Amino acid sequence: MNNQMLDLLQTRRTYRDFDENYQLSEEELQVILSAARQAPTWMNGQFYSIFVVKDSSIREKLVAMNPGNPHMLKSSVFLIFVADLNRSKKVADKYEVDFPIIEGIDPLLTAVTDTALAMNSATLAAESLGLGSVIVGSIRKDIDAISQLLNLPDYMFPVAGMSIGKPTVEMKVKPRLPEEAIVFYDTFKDYDYQVIEKYDETMDKFAEARETKIWSQKFADYFSQKPNTAVDQFLKDKKIQK
User: Fold this and answer.
1) What is the number of alpha carbons within 13 Å of residue 133 lying toward its C-beta?
2) Does residue 225 lie within any of the structural domains?
């Protein structure tokens, strides 16, 4: 099946090395932002905001907090996608109704889902323009400091950042888990652990330079550590969770 959008979806990849001299035009930026804003959203609620970080001094501070991601400064633009329930609070105040979002996690899940969908549309728009991007979820490690940098009010939660620019290093399309580990028809059907072992072998052959462990070991180690509790405290401080 020859389809440009399908080709784009199936060959999407992450880029981390960008031409520092390439300037994203205002027209290109608006195409990306417009695509993000047109993403699917629950009940047309649009529970997110997008911060376009152009100020190099702010970007330098972001890299200082997260030195493993120098592209946050070197890319053409850095976006931060924020789950936004502050707008909903304004509406609740206008109509003088309660706003009990801390009573459950569903409002947060809704806002984070909307944010992720907008972010995905932005990556596809960037690639359609011949640009590259990388998602930076590790900004949540310094979530409070980044919130202060952005001057976020209550009810707003940084989800992830995104560097966008002109790639200088060609990347290969990374293999994904086998379909039987991801796709289920009608009901869950457990699969043999060999499916994961097979994927470990695939990724080992793929030999991405930045990986120092096999796929399964990486995530076994990651989830053996306590979660980032700074996020929990931030959600409490911003009146999003109890």
Assistant:
1) 27
2) no
